[in-house]
Amino acid sequence: MEFSSKLLENAVYEMSQLPGVGKRTALRLVLHLLKQPQGQTERLAKALENLRKEIKFCSNCHNISDVALCEICANPKRDQGLVCVVEDIRDVMAIENTSQYNGLYHVLGGKISPMEGIGPQDLSIQSLVEKVKSGEVRELIFAMSSTMEGDTTNFYIYKQIQDQELTTSTIARGIAVGDELEFADEITLGRSIVQRIPFETSLKANG
Ligand SMILES: [Zn+2]
Q1: Going by fewer Cβ within 10 Å, which terminus of the chain is more open, N or C?
Q2: Residue 111 and residue 87 in contact, taking contact as beta carbons nearer than 8 Å
Q3: Rg of the chain over all Cα atoms, to the nearest angstrom
Q4: 181, 175 contact by CB (below 8 A)
Q5: 69 C-alpha to center of ligand 1: Å?
Q6: Is residue 14 classed as helix, strand or coil in its secondary structure?
Q7: What 3-state DSSP class applies to 134?
């Protein structure tokens, strides 16, 4: 792609670093911004800058938050002894949308994936194990996507805590095997969390 302007080229290059945005789309977006009032681009740049500077991760559940303890963890009406283990904030949002769950979350920040070089130490697993060992968790719900990486992650955590006094369950699989949680419809996902099953039963079902 030949550019008549270095400024344009730089903006297109940065935009094209985003996932799913090729050079042509990046050019279209940048030209669109140029046609809009200058304030719009400034607000976009400022929003991204503020996001990076001020975003926090909840000290308890590791969810993305504006404050040290997220709204869900800080809510006294939520069941503090019930903890749902999820991959990232998109899963929290998906489960919250069902209005079927009143416990807390633990956001791992990904899943174990040897292919992508992601090991247990790259995820917030240690803090979860410590939380369980401190005795404050009554039931742990595994709600990772039903993929090989999700199952591996669930099993790794389960191994660390299986000698502890608590109930472990996993969401019922109205969710198709191989589906990402965030793409499940609200009713299916809501039913899956209400009708969750003991984690050990799911291990037997998988052979
Ligand atoms: Zn939190």
Answers
A1: C
A2: yes
A3: 21
A4: yes
A5: 5
A6: helix
A7: coil
| Residues facing residue 167 across a β-bridge | 139
DSSP H helical ranges for the chain:
6-15, 23-35, 38-54, 71-74, 89-98, 126-133, 148-161, 186-194, 199-205
Structure tokens at 18: 């985003």
d(CA 56, ligand 1 centre) in Å = 10
Q: How far is the CA of 8 from the centre of ligand 1 (A)?
A: 41
The residue behind tokens 């994936």 is 113
Q: Which single residue is written with the structure tokens 């803090």?
A: 127
- The greatest distance separating any two alpha carbons of the chain, rounded to the nearest whole angstrom, comes to 67
Contact indicator for 157, 133 with CB cutoff of 8 Å:
no
| DSSP-assigned beta bridge partners for residue 168 | 140
- Scanning 16-116, the segments in alpha helix (DSSP H) are 23-35, 38-54, 71-74, 89-98
CA of 159 to the centre of ligand 1 (A): 24
What is the mean pLDDT for each group of 10 consecutive residues in the chain (207 residues)?
A: 92 95 96 96 96 94 95 97 96 92 96 93 96 94 87 93 90 65 71 78 66
